[in-house]
Amino acid sequence: MTDTAAAPAQVPLVDYLVLGDHPHLVAHQCTSCGARFFDRRNACAGCFGTEFEPADIATEGVVKAFTIVTFAAPGVPVPFVAAIVDCDGTSVRGNIINTEPDPEHVKLGMKVRLATFSLGADDQGTEAIGFGFEPA
Amino acid sequence: MAENVYILGINMTKFGKHADKDVVDLGAEAAMAALADAGVTMRDMGILAAGNLMNAGAGFGQRLQKQIGQTGIPVYNVANACATGATALRTVIMAVKSGEVDMGLAVGVEKLAGAGLLGGGGTPKKDSKVWEPSGRFGAVAPTDGRIGTDAMPGTFAQVGMEYGHKYGEVSFETFAKISEKNHAHSVLNPLAAYSKRFTLDEIMNDMMIAYPNTRPMCSANCDGGAAAVVVSETKLRTLSLGQQRRAVKISASVLTTDPYEEGCQILPNVNTLTRNAAKIAYEQAGVGPEDLNLVELHDCFATAELVHYDNLMLCPEGGAVEFFESGAPWRDGSTPVNVSGGLQSKGHPISATGIANIWEVCHHLRGEAGDRQIEGAKVGLAHVIGLGSACGVHILEKSAA
User: Fold this and answer.
1) How far is A133 from chain B (nearest CA, A)?
2) Is B17 inside a domain boundary?
3) Which domain holds residue B291?
4) What are the tens digits of pLDDT across the range B182-240?
5) Which residue, of A92, B39, B143, B255, has the greatest Cβ tally within 10 A?
6) In DSSP terms, which residues pair with B12 in a beta bridge?
7) Range of the domain at A56
8) What is the model's pLDDT at position B116?
9) pLDDT tens for each residue of B277-312
């Protein structure tokens, strides 16, 4: 062990979040029909194809649905704004962050951009990084 | 040519808190009352389909048989989210339609009083001591509340908000007014879990659960059971005139799932599968939305009722707010919707819901709905959505006999 303060290792909250200088999301894109999915795939739900390629998702988008959750499962801090963001044609699920969680600050159609935040470090010093969308 | 099928007998228990009864008690109460209503016994049943979602692995159907009659018939224990009751009913309908049996029993029951929030899970979410990716998203920590919401109130809130984004913003007040309507309707329903009228102010100022849904705008978790006896037309014609007169024709029985569309795995799309089910149902029944004298639709949240006006084509596409504001879905309007009080006040014991809404429609078509009777009702539609998703639509017609 050395005393050198090395930058703590980071891990994304989910595997479709790419960290680094330009954090962004990446989807599995079906090579035959273009459908995009964020989860591990067995096949395409649209055309049943089994070939996928990575597709970077636009980091800016428009809020097409949201809710302000004030009552949640135990251990989930409230309030928070859950939203569906249209990122250049790809729907993305994420929270609206870095603004007040009320209907005066969050609007349908508002422009947002991807932003990351820390979930803290685990017992080994690895920091988990999550993502949300902030007003653009 | 497939057989025409009818509801011969049907019953729902009172919805609410039944602390002294277990699921088998509630199922037995509904089933025995449905059989009595039909004027038949378990000996006449060729099939039993049974739903109890919260304990789907426990063989509810066989446990029920052991209390009300073991005749050796096949049991289908079904589970299909909030469409479980409709799925049980449709299972029996398919068996009768196919000609394999001439009569069958469908039962749905749930004990849900005090269940709290559904969908997000009732267990506390804790981060582990070491970030370790798991599951299909390789998540190192719980995502509910960090990447959107898993719970039902917020999910369906977004469904309503998405409608507003697509067709023009819908105000909090409009959603609250839908709830005001259903609670007002419930006052006439002695079997509803809650039959208290709320003012619009009371609804809007109640506890916010997931904007824009406040507590009275959410379906009520409660206990309840419902059951129906299905009969083929051929068999029905051998029964008494009284039985034939009270039989209700099942003009359409449809179950759909959500076809793939962009975004449907991000926010459940409850629209397309409902629209598809409705289209098939109207075609099967040979009726249109304008022919419906009443509709019981799946108002699990006030935000959901709005989109289903459109999905069931009760209004032109994009016209749900105008349809509501015109007064059409009130009980004295042109297309009464949820005259039972709906899930927000009648209650939503999940597996019972998809049979209880059929009971409500049958009650009116038979002219037996008492104070809340929709006069001269001849055709009605019952709709349920189970998230995941499954949609059941049934169209029922007053017997011609």
Assistant:
1) 10
2) yes
3) 5-114+220-398
4) 999 999 999 999 999 999 999 999 999 999 999 999 998 999 999 999 999 999 999 99
5) A92
6) B226
7) 10-135
8) 76
9) 999 999 999 999 999 999 999 999 999 999 999 999
Has residue B329 been placed in a domain? yes
Closest chain A residue to B170, measured at CA: A108
How close, in Å, is residue B272 to chain A by CA atoms?
14
Say if strands B379-386 and B208-211 run parallel, antiparallel, or are unpaired.
unpaired
Q: For residue B114, what pLDDT band results from cuts at 50, 70 and 90? A: confident
Our count of domains for chain A comes to: 1
CATH code, domain carrying B313: 3.40.47.10
Q: Where are the beta strands (DSSP E) in B55-181?
A: 75-78, 103-110
Give the other-Cβ count within 10 Å of B40's Cβ: 20
d(CA B305, CA B178): 8
B142, part of any domain? no
Banded pLDDT at B2 (limits 50, 70, 90): confident
| A5: in domain | no
User: Do B209 and A84 lie within an 8 Å CB cutoff?
Assistant: no
Chain B CB contacts of A116 below 8 Å? none
CB-CB contact of B89 with B354 (8 Å): yes
Report CA-CA distances (Å) from A50 to A16, A44, B137, B138: 19, 6, 18, 20
CB contact (8 A) between residue B147 and residue A83: no
- B139, B172, B211 member nearest A14 (Cβ): B139
Instruction: Judge: B165–A80 Cβ closer than 8 Å, yes or no.
Output: no
- Whether A4 maps to a domain, the answer reads no
Nearest chain A residue (CA) to B123: A74
- Option in A14, A66, A126 nearest B137 (CB): A14
Above 60 in pLDDT, residue B369?
Answer: yes
ipTM score: 0.94
Residues of B in contact with A131 (CB under 8 A): 147
Polymer length of chain A: 136
Is there a domain that residue B182 lies in?
no
- Structure-derived torsion over alpha carbons of residues B15, B306, B164, B158, reported in degrees to the nearest 10: 20
- Record: contact A95-B117, CB cut-off 8 A: no
How many domains, in total, are found in chain B? 1
Give the residue carrying structure tokens 């988990």: A128
